[in-house]
Design brief:
About 60% of the residues lie in helices and about 0% in strands. With about 200 residues, the chain is mainly alpha-helical. The protein folds into 3 domains: about 50 residues; about 50 residues; about 70 residues. The longest helix is centred in the N-terminal third of the chain and has 16 residues. The termini are far apart. The relative contact order is 0.10. The C terminus is likely disordered. This is Regulatory protein RecX. It is found in: Cytoplasm. Keywords: Cytoplasm. One of its GO terms (biological process) is regulation of DNA repair. InterPro entries: RecX_HTH_2nd, Regulatory_RecX, WH-like_DNA-bd_sf.
Length: about 200
């Protein structure tokens, strides 16, 4: 026996209802303007009336200082850098995906990461994640896995290489890994491929 569950369509709400909904959403978690607009779209009226209501809610929330992409970007970057120990490239990618404007991302990251020692941050990430030094017959495989993990965490290959070199691994384990290879600086070239908001 199967149950046919049809999703009950919500009645669209006006500006007052959208405002109440948006305040509740923001009380639970920080959001970008784009993210909040996406959530409100499911509740707003269709067409121009819904767009006007969402615009009015966003303006009002911005005036009340409940909603700010600048504050979101700064807080998000600080938390990812200090708590998660993520590198610059990872935070950049995350902010772009969340709809923060490219110029705001660049200025926020410059302010947060320009005076940061990337190698020290990578070491802190390794310690936080309890990544163990590769050893044994499959040390090369472990090293490659660790390098991939550090790349996904947003570190440049030169910083990763320095961290791996500090472990005094056998040359076989470091085979194929070159210092100054694909760097996070070369990632800036790929920024052009990211959507602009």
């Amino acid at each position: 026996m199967t149950f046919n569950r049809t999703k009950k369509k919500r009645e669209p709400v006006g500006e007052a209802g959208l405002f109440e909904y948006a305040v509740g959403v923001l009380a639970r978690r920080m959001r970008t303007v784009r993210d909040l607009r996406r959530l409100m779209k499911n509740r707003a009226e269709e067409g121009e009336a819904g767009e006007r209501a969402m615009d009015a809610v966003i303006v009002r929330l911005t005036e009340l200082k409940y909603l700010s992409d600048t504050r979101f970007a700064a807080d998000y970057t600080r938390l990812r850098k200090e708590n998660e120990k993520h590198g610059r490239r990872r935070v950049q990618q995350d902010l772009m995906q969340k709809g923060v404007h490219k110029d705001l991302v660049a200025s926020t990251l410059a302010q947060a990461y320009d005076d940061v020692d990337e190698v020290a941050l990578a070491r802190a990430y390794v310690a936080r994640k309890r990544i163990k030094q590769p050893s044994g017959p499959d040390a090369q495989k472990q090293t490659t896995r660790i390098m991939g993990r550090l790349m996904r965490a947003g570190f440049s290959s030169s910083a990763i290489f320095k961290v791996l070199r500090e472990w005094h691994l056998p040359e076989e384990a470091l085979e194929g890994i070159e210092e100054g290879g694909r760097d996070s600086d070369s990632y800036a070239e790929r920024d052009e491929d990211l959507p602009e908001f």
